[in-house]
Amino acid sequence: MMRLLPWEELPASMRTPEVRAYYDILARRRAALAAKRAFDMLASALMLVLLSPLFLGLTIAIRADSPGPVFYRQTRVTQYGREFRIHKFRSMVDGADRKGTLVTVSGDARVTRVGQFIRRFRLDEISQLIDVLKGDMTFVGTRPEVPKYVAAYTPEMMATLLLPAGVTSLASIMYKDEAALLDAAADADRVYVEEVLPGKMAYNLEGIRRFSLWDDLRLMVMTVLAMLGKEYAADRPAA
Q1: Which of 51, 64, 102, 165 could cross-link with 78 by S-S, CB 3.0 to 4.6 Å?
Q2: 89 DSSP β-pair partners
Q3: DSSP alpha helices (H): ranges in the chain?
Q4: What pTM does this model have?
């Protein structure tokens, strides 16, 4: 789904002055939103076909490495606050989210041997092509959070729910080593909500302000380069 709902049909929690400023920006770019959804459908379908051998290889490796399902299906939040179950290749022991925090630190004992390889190259994320094709996600947009962290959003952060959740974003690139940032925290959940989340949201909100299909394509290229080792200097947008 990519259609921008009429203002009066938004959830009450989103009909605020803070969100209205971002809504008006997107309302002027409806053609770009339609093009974004068309691109999502075509590109995700093509990539699912091309990457099917990799999907098969990961399926076999995950099944052989540890008991449990191939996909990790956690509940996340997407456009307009709708919940969906994300597709991620499982990189942790089955039931890991019942055995600790919902954020992952480096050296997390819950990560499997195959999971370490999967996470290193972000291969757990490629199964989200399924979610993009279904319309639950888009290629570029705010990473989908669990309901627990969405409940901590400020009124302005709610504007990120005007668009579907994304596979990547500038925030994802700048915080690609997020686990390392949480390593020293005695309370990783608190540090994530109070320090990491606001930093990521500054990038996400700036992404809405400058939204265009061209910018989406640029960020997709940046993501690939970041996965190959390129470092980008952090330049946090003004709040």
Answers
A1: 165
A2: 71
A3: 17-27, 30-50, 52-65, 113-120, 129-134, 147-150, 170-174, 178-182, 188-191, 197-209, 213-227
A4: 0.88
